[in-house]
Write a structure and sequence with these properties.
The chain is mainly α. The chain has helices spanning about 1-35, 40-60, 65-70, 75-100, 105-135, 140-165, 165-170, 170-190, 200-235, 235-260, 265-275, 275-315, 320-345, 355-375, 380-405. Helix 1 packs antiparallel against helix 10.
Length: about 400
């Protein structure tokens, strides 16, 4: 019993540590870039970061939740690993065209490509983390993510301090992640399965088709987050820097929601497969309540301390942006709710509905983001973000309620 409690504590601690480090790293690095190289390079980093996160959804293809909840072993680990190699290669090829489509030129192209490569390496590690999670060793998954992100961030910061070159410094996160995969991930994978490349293209096709709706949803969710940023970038990189710095606060809500629901996915899957609907619904309701409470606390904290803290941390003035910040944080709450519901539909194997769920707010934000920014500037970007996330959350809730009504509660 004691050893089981110790393992549970380790699982929750390292899951929190990994999620926290991954979420907070961009905030810290944005601060460092602003402090060392100024707001212009801060804007370049913000754009590169936004693009790399968008592209990482292709590499991940939203397979992690499916892999971790594949308790019947419908697909082998070699299937998951081999497909991840293919999606990672495809991501780097697609990234080139996507970066140019965003109007990037000169060193900005190379910087964005390097951060895409970093995210691709994290995506490769993610397939190993999915194996750990499936075998109830989320502590290993959290530990590898935490160390990769911390070591990459530290080397990046040291290099930037010494060279003041954003381009040179962006090389180190890629190198560190590659090294870490070989010295940490690979040896531990062998405790659960063998790493081998599979040429089972029929399995790849089936897995891609099953995860395609969830991938489309994740890609569109990133687009919903980034569309206002792309619109703001049309004003100036400095304006994008200000908006992105405030948007970092919204990630706190996603961070704490991940703390809560990621360790529960395997349990929710077991409940769903065994038709234990009462526990399934009780756990789901508790997680939704948790996201709501975190959102309220975040809005309150942003109202009281957000502007002075941001101004102190970044060394630039955020006066006059309090309302913009509150709108962005509120949108972050709806975004966290949508992320959880997306994972929940995957657990329920209802992910085919994600196409429609995300399509509506994506079409909406495609039109309103540039229009709102043109009308109201940075406030327009915040309102566009809130509008799209609110619409997304409402559609998710309607779908979840539809499936819940079909369950028999005993």
């Amino acid at each position: 019993m004691t050893s089981q409690k110790s393992r549970l504590r380790a699982i929750y601690f390292w899951n929190m540590a990994g999620s926290f480090c991954n979420a907070i790293s961009s905030f810290i690095l944005t601060v460092i870039v602003n402090r060392i190289n100024g707001s212009a390079d801060g804007g370049v980093y913000s754009l590169a970061y936004a693009i790399s996160y968008q592209m990482s959804t292709i590499a991940l293809f939203e397979i992690r939740h499916y892999q971790a909840t594949d308790l019947t072993d419908k697909y082998s680990f070699s299937n998951y690993f081999s497909l991840r190699i293919i999606t990672c290669i495809a991501t780097m090829i697609i990234s080139v065209g996507y970066i140019f489509s965003k109007g990037c030129t000169g060193q900005t192209v190379l910087i964005a490509l390097l951060w895409c490569a970093f995210r691709v390496m994290l995506a490769l590690s993610d397939v190993f983390q999915g194996l750990f999670q499936k075998n109830e060793r989320l502590d290993l998954a959290g530990k590898t993510l935490a160390f990769q992100v911390v070591l990459s961030s530290v080397t990046f910061a040291i290099s930037l301090y010494l060279t003041h070159s954003l381009l040179i410094s962006s090389i180190f996160p890629v190198l560190i992640t590659v090294i870490w995969i070989f010295i940490y991930d690979v040896p531990r994978v062998n405790n659960f399965d063998k790493i081998k490349f599979s040429f089972d293209f029929k399995a790849f096709g089936r897995l891609l088709i099953e995860c395609l709706p969830a991938f489309a949803g994740a890609f569109m969710l990133q687009y919903l987050t980034n569309a206002p940023k792309y619109a703001v970038n049309a004003i100036s990189s400095e304006t994008l820097n200000i908006y992105n710095n405030m948007a970092m606060i919204a990630f706190v809500i996603n961070l704490f929601s991940l703390f809560a629901f990621r360790p529960k996915l395997t349990f929710l899957t077991t409940c769903w497969l065994n038709s234990n609907n009462k526990k399934f619904l009780k756990t789901t309701a508790g997680l939704v309540l948790w996201i709501g409470v975190v959102t309220i606390i975040a809005i309150g904290g942003a109202a009281l301390l957000g502007i002075p803290v941001l101004s102190m941390v970044y060394g630039i003035s955020f006066e006059g942006y309090r309302t913009v910040l509150l709108v962005i944080v509120a949108a972050g709450g709806f975004s966290a709710l949508a992320t959880f519901f997306s994972a929940l539909l995957t657990v329920m194997r209802k992910q085919s509905r994600l196409w429609f769920i995300y399509a509506v707010p994506c079409v909406l934000t495609f039109f309103i983001s540039p229009m709102f920014v043109k009308l109201w500037g940075i406030m327009g970007a915040a309102v566009a973000y809130l509008t799209s996330m609110f619409v997304l959350a409402v559609i998710f809730i309607l779908f979840i309620l539809y499936f819940v009504k079909k369950l028999k509660i005993s």
